[in-house]
Every structure is written in structure tokens, then in C-alpha cells.
Amino acid sequence: PVNTLSGMQVSVMTALVSFDRVFEVLDLQPLIAERPDAESLPAAGQALAPEIAFDSVFFRYPSADEVSLASLENIALRRPERLDDSWTLDGMSFVAPAGKLTALVGPSGAGKTTITQLVPRLYDATQGAVRIGGRDIRDLTLQSLRDTVGVVTQEAHLFHDTLRANLLFARPDATEDDLVQACTAARIWDTVVALSDGLDTVVGDRGYRLSGGEKQRIALARLLLKSPPIVVLDEATAHLDSESEAAIQRALKSALAGRTSLVIAHRLSTIREADQILVVEAGRIRERGTHEELLEAGGLYAELYRTQFAQQSSDELQPEASAAG
Ligand code: ATP
């Protein structure tokens, strides 16, 4: 009984934490206002995926007081114009080129997640601007921004509903063929057909429980259905078995192809494939370049590589090395 009780406390605490998060996001919504003269970006698919640019972005998270004041009065956040050392993003400038993969790496707390939250406007820059295709994202309609930027976090959220409903959520007008194609490209279709009810299987806490790797591939299938020109992705850190690891890598590759992607990279295979790596530390870009260039430079990246990625390197390189030999 004691074990059951302590387990229950953990579940209750977890539930409360998620509620907090929900309210946190709801509270923030009034801060992200659409300008009356906001414009849309060209529809997806008509042009090359647009680039993302951070232009001297300073950012600090609003304090609890600022958030509640702003949501009570439904006004834009008034921010003190002071430049001190407490910036989460400290004058950050970079370009994530159109159609290319940009990987963000850096120590914990460096600001990588914050960068990815500014692109879909979960928060606005305190100073400076985030631009998509040269346009300040505050000048875009929220609908256009939502259609343009696809976000995949580490924890894919699935509703307690059928797999089909969970997928259609990304694109309500998708046909059966679209669903099959997306699931196939996300390397999850074989799993789906093996389930007793296929796409009509109910998933979620009280339904069929997908593994972490399966959930991520469902998230990628959703992304493919939505097909946004820009993808912001927090690559999963969870340890996966090697088969689902390889499946996810292939799924990722097809999901990101041709899109402008900004990825918090935890896997060596992703950073090696990146067209550009941005090394973030204390809210600034400390180094930028490709894997080879940064290793050569022997700076912070080389150090991170030794501490975070070298083990993955020996795991991944062994088969290649023997094939080459
Ligand atoms: P990690 O690799 O550990 O995920 P990160 O590089 O993604 O780290 P961020 O999550 O962007 O770093 O955090 C940057 C800083 O902002 C940290 O000091 C963190 O404590 C702070 N921070 C993050 N989210 C919030 C928030 N919602 N409110 C206040 N401060 C926050």
C-alpha cells in the first residue's frame, strides 16, 4: 500500500505539472498578438522553403508578474529597456539557410530550446527580430506562421483517440492514401498494419501504448502530412533500441529533405549531416561551421564532441570502418 500511495503522489504531481504548462501557454497567448496589418507568407509549395534569420535577438523570459499583469490587462508586455547580463539570448544573430539543415548544439541551459520557441512565436524577442524569408515574424498572420513552421518536440503528444484521428489533426483533409504515404515515409506503417485495428486503433494512456520511438515516428508522420516548409525539431534524447534508432534516422531524413530545418541535435548522425552547426553557449553563438571544420578548429565543439558524441561515434563508425576496410 505504501508503494501504491507514493506512486500515486508521483502521478498526481506529474498531472499538476502538465496542467501548469497548459496554463503557462494559455497565459502567454495574449502576449503574442497579431498586428492588424499582418500579412501572409506565400503558400507552402509555391516557392523554395524560406530562410530563418535571427537578427541581434535579445531575449529574457518574462517574470511571473509580467505574465499575469499582461494577461489580466490583455496588453503587450512592457519590458524594461536594460541591457545587463541576465539575457537568455544575448544578441544572437544567425541565418538558417533555405532548404538546409542547421543543427544547434551546446551545453545544457545554453539557450537552444529558447531559440526554437522563438521561431513559432511561443515568445517574442525582447529586442531584435526573428525573420522568415526576410519578413519580421511579428508582421505575419498567426495562421500563416502556423502553416509555415512545423514543430516537433521530444515528447509527441497523442490524444486518447484513434491513430487516424491523431494523424488527421495535422491535416484534416488528408486522404487514406496520404495517411499511408506519410506513415510509410515516417517508417511507422509496418507497425500500424500489425495492430489489430490498424489506423482505427485507439492510442494514448487508456488505449494502445506506443513506445517512445513509435510516438516519435507518428509525430514525423504528422509533420509529413502538414508538410511545412520550415521544421523546428528537438531531437529525442531517449535511448532507443538500435532498430528503431535506424528507422527514426531514415524517417527524419525524408521528413527534413528540402525543408529549412533547425534541429536541436543529440545524435551524431544528425550533426554530421547538418549543412551548418551552430554552437550555442550562454545565449550566444560561439562557433559555426560543419562538423569537420569545427573539429579542426579544436574549440568548444571539439570538446562537446569528445564528451557528448564520441561514444556514439565509436558505436556508429564500427560497421562503416569494417565495410571500408
Ligand atoms: P538543454 O540542453 O538542457 O535543454 P537549452 O540549451 O535548451 O538546454 P534553454 O532550455 O533554452 O537551454 O534554457 C536557457 C535558459 O533559460 C536556462 O537558464 C533556463 O533555465 C532558462 N529557461 C528556460 N525556460 C524557461 C522558462 N519557461 N522561464 C524562465 N526561464 C527559462
From TrEMBL:
It is a multi-pass membrane protein. One of its GO terms (molecular function) is ATP binding. Residues 70-307 form the ABC transporter domain. Keywords: ATP-binding, Membrane, Nucleotide-binding, Transmembrane, Transmembrane helix. It comes from the Bacteria. The keyword Membrane applies. Its main location: membrane. It is found in: Cell membrane. This is ABC transporter ATP-binding protein. The lineage of its organism: Bacteria, Bacillati, Actinomycetota, Actinomycetes, Kitasatosporales. The chain holds residues 313 to 637 of 639 of the full protein.
